[in-house]
Structures are given as C-alpha cells and as structure tokens.
Design brief:
alpha+beta; about 45% helix; about 280 residues
C-alpha cells in the first residue's frame, strides 16, 4: 500500500532519453523499513521541478505523489520530498588519511623505476585523486570514493597474495591496483558543494575509457605487465575490457586484478553514510 510516511533511501539515479526525444529519470529507492527496492520513473516535466541534488545516493526521501503497479515495486513519481540530505563524501581529514594509506603502499613497491613512476604520478595529481569518485552510479560514487576503492583493492590483493602459493610480482600487483582506475580522475567531474557526479566530455573525445588511459601511460613507461592487468581488469570486452579474460593462456595476474577490482566494486555499492558507520 502506498504511504507518504515511508522513508526511502536513494540507491541509484540516471537520466536517459525516451523514444520521443524527451528526458526520463530512472530512480531506485530502498524502503528503510524492510529494505525492499522500488524502481521509479520520472518524466521530464517532473524532473524539471526538482533540484538534481535530491537524487544523490544516500539521500532520504518520501514519495508525496505517485502511481504504483500491482506489486508496489514499480511506480511513476510525480512529487518527491527530501527528508535528509546525505553526506557528499569523505571529509578533508578522511581524504588525507586515505591518500597517506595509499602512499604507504607505493612505498612498498621495491622496483625503483616503478616506485618513482607511481609516486610521481600521485604527487602531481594529488588534488584530483583526493576528491574523485570511482564511478558515477555503480560504486564508491562520492567525494573521495576513488581512493576508498583503490585502498580496498590494495588491501584485498595483499591479503590474498600472503595466502597464495603462487609467486606474484608484488610490485606490479600493487601498481596495477593503484593505477587501474586512475583515468577516472579525468573521466569524471564532481561538484564539491553538492557531490553530484558527471562525465567530462573532453576526456571522452580523447580517450575510449579510463582503462585505455591507464593502459597507455603504463605502456609508455615500459611497464607492460602492469598495462596488461589494467587492460583486463573489467574482465570482458562488452564490460569495457581491452583484454577479454575468455582468451586462452593468459597470465594469472590478469584474473587476479579483475577479481580484486570486482570484489571492491560489489562491496562498494553503499552510501558514504554507511562507510562512516563502519568507522572509516
């Protein structure tokens, strides 16, 4: 039954085009009482009535007016109310902590040339690295989210390498964890006031993807193994991978980085408020 007293948490939001050429919003909400998901549609005339920041992941909203299907798991929203605004991302202090933790991992890279390359890149681009998200919608989509994702990948990789009988090149694994998504500092834009994320169109004109960017900078410096890990980290070509893991006789490291990245991405589908609750 529809009730205006139910609070919903914003899970995802995206705007697309209809066949008629108008805009349509797709909003997924989570019922805070029973954690059930509600998929919502907002037509262009409804979207135009809202400040877009109401749709930020983690916001708590109430549906004021809507029409529902019989199962009450899909609806057409015509009016929405913001109850509580979510945090936009990591605080400045948290950003410094995450950045320092990643630099500590760079220090673990014993290969002097690789260490110098990664450290130089992190210092030159530290302002962007500290604020950028890891995605627009799918995971770690908040200020500082990219660093959270990179650190998770490093920690998962280190723990699994310690347990494995396989002889990994730790330097190259750490570098791949740090650089596999580094192109996202240019692929996205983020408003530090509202936390809203968008794509940087100039990046899209120059590069196919952030994977191509990371692959290219590593190849240019002669780090071919790291470049190949970055090329394969999406797993499948239809997911954006340059190297499809369905190919035969690939290095185990390529599968390893894909699985580590995917693990962090799956666990990263939480709002920044929950990250704070976990004590990050």
């Amino acid at each position: 039954m529809f009730s205006t007293d139910i609070d919903y948490e914003v899970v995802t939001f995206a705007v697309g085009d209809t066949k008629a050429g108008t805009k349509m919003g797709k909003l997924q909400l989570k019922n805070t009482q029973d954690n059930s998901l509600l998929n919502c549609i907002l037509w262009e005339e409804t979207l135009n009535r809202f400040d877009s920041k109401i749709f930020r992941t983690g916001n708590i909203v109430r549906i004021v007016s809507a029409s529902f299907n019989e199962k009450f798991n899909n609806c057409l929203v015509s009016a929405l109310e913001l109850v509580k605004e979510a945090k936009t991302g990591l605080s400045e202090a948290q950003r410094e902590t995450y950045y320092a933790a990643i630099v500590d991992y760079i220090d673990k890279i014993s290969d002097e040339k690789l260490n110098a390359f990664v450290m130089k890149y992190f210092i030159e681009h530290k302002d962007l690295i500290k604020v950028m998200p890891a995605a627009k919608v799918m995971h770690h989509n908040y200020i500082g989210g990219l660093m959270v994702h990179l650190l998770e990948c490093l920690q998962y990789a280190e723990a699994n390498m310690e347990m494995s009988q396989y002889e990994f090149n730790r330097d190259e694994i750490f570098a791949a964890c740090i650089l596999h998504d580094i192109g996202k500092i240019f692929e996205y834009t983020i408003d530090l006031e509202t936390g809203l994320i968008d794509y940087d169109e100039s990046f899209r004109k120059e590069w196919l993807s952030h994977s191509q960017y990371g692959f290219s900078i590593c190849m240019n410096e002669g780090f071919k193994n790291v470049a190949r890990m970055i090329a394969a980290h999406h797993g499948r070509s239809d997911w954006g991978a340059i190297i499809d893991l369905d190919q035969k006789d690939l290095e185990p490291e390529l599968y390893f980085i894909h699985l580590i990245d995917n693990l962090s991405a799956k666990f990263g589908k939480i709002s920044v408020a929950r990250l704070e609750e976990k004590g990050a």
